[in-house]
Amino acid sequence: MNGSQTTQAPATGHVGGGEDLVEQYGIQPIPLADRASTLGAVAVIFFNICLNPGAIMRAGLSVCAGLPYLWAVGVQVLGTFSAAIFCIVLARIGCDYGIPGQVATRSAFGVMGARYFCSLTRVLASIYNFAFQNLVGCLSIQEFVRLTTGHTVSLTVFAVLFGCAQALVGIFGFRVLKNLSGLATPIKVGIIFFLMTRLPLGSLSLTAQPMTGVIVWPSWLLIATWVDVYASVWMTLAPDAADFTRHMKSRRGLYLTMTLSIIAGSLLASAFGALGPALSAGKDANVLSVVMDGGAGFRTNCLVILLVVFDNWTINALNVYTSGLSLCNLLPRISRLFATIIVAVLGLTLSMLGNALSDLVQFHAWIGTIFAPVTGVLIADYLVVRRQALDVPALYTRHGQYWYTVGFNPRAIAAVAVGVVVFRFLPESTLRPLACFLIVALCYLALCLAARRGAGQGGLADGLHAPR
């Protein structure tokens, strides 16, 4: 069989036609005949993953933390791409086999390990990310209502209404999500460039610290801290990168397309987001609030809200969609539709609590602790051990080659455990997610090599490659 074709596997979710309004495919492979996505759709999706309310807000928060404008932009692009490259590598799995990323993690962690470790942690991270993105958008809507009516409406009201609208797109599935992203992207980009013209860019200092107006070289610790934040965010996406490419028939041009879209999206998000505190002397991390508080006028404020709506719709729909597939892998008996609804409800609940905006750096340190080791194992297993070839039916089979020991791969679990400990003891100045990734990848390969030699076989390759 050609490596780019899908091997039929036992269905583990509700199966249906690819043209249904609500996507019926769960975590089973999508047949080649039902794959209709294009490189353009993938480019738009990953561009939107970079250009989202959270990324824009994080750029502003990094300036408030002490980074000059130009440094904040560079750090976000560097931190994003340093980990996004792992997503680019793992996205190939979707094109080659039509399976979601969480199913692919079974090859490295075992059928049960992928379920109770990879998918569970991904669902928890997704719930937080949904709540964070939702609240960031709702803050701008709340400010708009205050400016236009003079009344302050409860953030909870906006969180529920706006969150439901975002979740609905993810519930419909990939085709609706793809179409929304294609519609929203040119609108978002156009509005951002227009809003930038409404700001006093002539007073912007590219290298001065905004709170003091003094040109500074940021400390390496400050730079490393924010690179860690962006790298941690993208490492949570690495296990799910295949979710957005499994609808494609060919991987030709995939790497270049994803690279360009990720760099462009992160550059625009950081360049726009860092303007808020850079122009307000660090008083406001939200550039959209700076635009509206500057007396921009009703029409401009309406454009701000339109940007917020489309921005949140695209990113949180993507978030809910992938986390629904993760929950399907965790609980195989439920459908993708029901799993997506569960994740959306949990994200909305956290939004109403209003705590997702606090302890941002601490949360990303936690997810870095988990996802940096996981990404290290996945990349080492896929590129070196498996040589980019998977046995798809075995991924869905109990007691097959990916069952390992009662469904868990002890080498992967051991390498992740080492990574969690190492991450905690690494100094913050060492770019911990990336350093931990490298250490865990080498540790996993060493364990695999030791196991092969112990069994009298000399080499990392497991001999289970699919024919090419």
Automatic annotation (TrEMBL):
* Keywords, alphabetical: Membrane, Transmembrane, Transmembrane helix
Classify the protein's membrane topology as the record does: Multi-pass membrane protein
The answer to keyword Nuclease applying to this record is no
The membrane spanning regions, by residue number, are: 38-57, 69-93, 114-132, 152-177, 189-208, 214-233, 254-276, 336-357, 363-385, 406-426, 432-451
GO cellular component labels? plasma membrane
Q: Which Pfam families match?
A: Transp_cyt_pur
Q: Where in the cell is it found?
A: Membrane
Q: Name one GO molecular function term.
A: cytosine transmembrane transporter activity
Report the family membership: Belongs to the purine-cytosine permease (2.A.39) family.
Q: What is this protein called?
A: Cytosine permease
Q: Which organism is it from?
A: Acetobacter garciniae
